[in-house]
Amino acid sequence: MRNSNSKIEIGHGSGGKLTRDLIEKVFLKYLNSEELKPLEDAAYINLKNQHTAITTDSYVVRPLFFPGGNIGKLSICGTVNDLAVSGAKPRYLSIGFILEEGFPIESLEDIVKSISETSKNAGVSIVTGDTKVVEKNKCDGVYINTTGVGEIIKPLSLNNISAGDAVIITGTIGDHGTAIALARNEFDIKAPVVSDCAPLTDLIMPVFEIDGLKWMRDPTRGGVSTVLAELSDITGLGVEIFEAQVPVRDDVRFISDMLGYDPLYLANEGKAIIIASSESADTIVSILKKHPLGKNAAIIGNISSEFRRARLKTTIGGERLLDMLEEDMLPRIC
Amino acid sequence: MDKVKGIIKLIHSLVPDNKNIRIMNVCGSHEHTIAFSGMRSLMPENLEIIPGPGCPVCVCPESDIINAINLSKREDVILVTYGDMLRVPTQKGSIRTEGKNFRMITSPFEAINIAKSNTDRKIIFFSIGFETTTAPTAGILEMGVPENLFILSSHRLTPTIMEILVKDAEIGIDGFIAPGHVSAIVGTNAWNVFSEKYGIPTVVAGFEAGNLLLGILEILRQLKNGKAETSNVYKGVVKPEGNMQAQKLMDKYFEVANVNWRGIGYIPGSGLELREKYSWKDARIVFELEEVKETKIPGCICGTIVLGKAYPSACKLFRKACTPKTPKGPCMVSMEGSCNIWYKTL
Ligand code: SF4
Question: What is the pLDDT of residues B64-79, one digit of tens each?
């Protein structure tokens, strides 16, 4: 049964009966791993592998529901992907909700439902959680924090990167940033751009097997440009990207041109940048292309020791800098 | 691509070795294309492409913004304006940080809708920009706007500021790339004065890198032949006479005024105010706005950059204290501002 009409009350965060109700009627209804069920203060988890990756992230996206996902799906993908690009197999997740008084429980159910679906797709169990309720107008509906634990399968490090390596992207860039911009209805534009929000576990794990794999990162806030600028900053190596090889959806490019955005700076929530030896790059791209999420995978550039910083060779053959930047016009995209 | 390569080669062949050539663009979207395509890296060393006054937000007087902030604090008002305007810093903060009742719009038609659905409030449309945004504002006035909608006009005229620049020997302009969108309204004829009176090649170009390169090539060709003309490589869109209907409406509702350009000062005949006949729609009059004295932003050289006398990289704050997240001056805020564009591409 759906909880229509009911709304979040302050008491739902009290830790008492109402909290218990909410846990049972909403959270456990969809999230019911063995580890979560005892509802103890801490979950016992079983990590086979001693080498463990752990990451945490908070989600405050506005609007909460957008084409291609919602804050719930995002809160799973974001954390799962941080683990996956670290060479880990995501295993366990904790989830914390901050709910605004008055938030419709029906919408919360929709969010929890997609959390359940997405975590299944990603192969992770949600093993512990927390809920707090704040007074009306003290938050924007729902904020979520997730912490993820994964088994390290392929330890990766920026130190592995060397001149001559290839830069690979697993698909089209800028979809999430554009979808959020449009979903805010601040611009008079209608276009069927859907967020790429997706767990990357399945797509990426086969790549762990390839020897030439050096390093990965998911280009979320600040986009591809920011990741590459950071890479160059830390390693002292140069990065060159070829604009003509970077996959961008036509509508994303069109909208970016109109709004003055650059897809290279726009957020992605279901893409990875992979740095790999030049010999292994083609193999990796062909592995990625076998998965639906990787059908637009491409080699987009390379690492060089001949210059520093990250730069783009444009379609007309010009050069420009790629820098670290959050697209300043779009706060709260994840 | 081969065509583009060919144009670039021709550009190189037409630039004389012994002379610096300075071509100015006066449009934020042109500067955007030039910077994002890395066009400058493909040009001969002695050919400069200078960003000029292409950013209306950058020159909007501080006084108008402070007045807008104050208006938005009134309970009976909703201030509406274009997105970039909301974040422009002043001594009193920005509309976004200090304002109260304000909304972002992308077209004047949205202002009408907001007015219609908030009949108990006075909607003040802070209407800024060059001819491209003036025309739609005149358009809604002609359509008839709701009684509770008022206009705070801070419009500026492109040809007037260009004429100021041309006369300034310090800048030394050899050619203009005239703005595509503005030209669609005012027509190529509006630029004849530059080629005829001042002998400056002036070429209307579109927004694709290839089209802009063609524009640059055309300027160089004229310089080589020693004969300045006004020409147009953005033919499908721009006509010699422009959009006469838009011009007529602009003239009906607005009159030329002596206005302040932020960081630059008063320039005679360079702005547009609502005609006296429509003063009952003019927020300046209805709300009895007074001019606030402009303050200098310490270290910011936006005004000099807008005039093409310095590149953003010449500012000591550029990339240091001043970034798109911590903008010190208006040129770092707007996506049409040279500092913002250069920050992302240089
Ligand atoms: S970098 Fe900032 S402070 Fe310097 S001129 Fe540009 S806007 Fe002004």
Answer: 999 999 999 999 999 9
How many CA atoms, within 13 angstroms, populate the side-chain half-sphere of residue A86? Answer: 19
Q: Measured between alpha carbons, how far is A299 from A285 in angstroms, rounded to an integer?
A: 7
| pLDDT score recorded for residue B121 | 97
Predicted TM-score of the model (pTM) = 0.85
User: Going by DSSP bridges, is the β-strand pair B230-232/B202-204 parallel, antiparallel, or unpaired?
Assistant: parallel
Q: What is the mean pLDDT of residues A94-115?
A: 96
* CA dist., res. B201 & res. B234, Å (int): 15
For residue B59, give Cα distances in angstroms to A60, B276, B331: 35, 24, 9
Minimal C-alpha gap between B346 and chain A (Å):
5
Q: Residue A230: is it exposed, middle or buried by C-beta count within 10 angstroms (0-12/13-18/19+)?
A: middle
Superfamily of domain A158-321 in CATH is PurM-like C-terminal domain (3.90.650.10)
Strands A238-242 and A309-313: parallel
Are B59 and B264 in contact, with CB atoms under 8 Å apart? yes
Atom number of ligand 1 nearest to Cα B318: 1
Average predicted confidence (pLDDT) for chain B: 95
B295 CA from centroid of ligand 1 (Å): 15
Distance A64 CA to ligand 1 centre (A): 35
What are the Cα distances from residue A149, in Å, to A39, A120, B107?
A: 19, 15, 48
A38 pLDDT higher than 80:
no
- Parallel/antiparallel/unpaired status of strands A166-169 and A273-276: antiparallel
| Full DSSP string of A194-240 | -------HHHHGGGGG-TTEEEEE---TTHHHHHHHHHHHHH--EEE
- What residue spans define the domains of chain A? 10-152, 158-321
Helix (H) / strand (E) element for B13: namely helix B2-14
Q: What is the ipTM of this complex?
A: 0.77
Encode B276-340 in three state secondary structure. Answer: HHHHHHEHHHHCCCCCCCCCCCCCCCHHHHHCCCCCHHHCCCECCCEECCECCCHHHCCCCCHHH
CB-based pocket (< 6 A), ligand 1: B 299-302, 305, 312, 315, 317-318, 322, 328-329, 331-332, 339
Which chain B residues are closer than 8 Å to A265 by Cβ? 344
Dihedral angle over CA of B146, B149, B154, B159, nearest 10: 0
| A10-152 has CATH 3.30.1330.10 classification | yes
